[in-house]
Known about the structure:
This protein has helices at residues 2-17, 29-32, 51-68, 85-97, 113-125, 146-149; strands at 22-24, 46-48, 77-81, 103-109, 132-138, 153-157.
Amino acid sequence: KEALLEEVEKAVVLAGKIGARAVSLTGLIPSATRHGADLTPSKSPLITTGHATTTACITLNLSKTLTLTHRKLETSTLIAIGLGSIGTSSLKLTIAVLPHPQKIMLIDVKGKKSDMEELSGYLKNTLGFAGSVEVLISTGKSVPNEVYTAENPVIIGA
Length: 158
């Protein structure tokens, strides 16, 4: 990991020397560097992962899709499949800025169960979601059967 951090820091310095004001960490580099937090802070250039833009795009696309298909999130079950950094931030933003669905299903692999339970609490206690939140485990090969029987499903996957 130290070798990776050293190489990324060299790249950031080089980008700054040739005039870059911002450097975006892509691929697996954000995860490997704790979204850049493991890098030695520098004044320039700014380091970003682009996750905020991706998150905003997912929520904007969801809103536009619902409008174009004449559907309402308020009468739907919102199903979030994959709750890594993008999936979690997209769900949080969606609940923060769009009308709340009737129900939310959180789906990820068994190793993410405690994260999903924590997210459930955040949705209810911080974002004021009053509906039910169901934490479901995926086998990695398929989603739980509850996805196929959900009432008015709206699925976001990241």
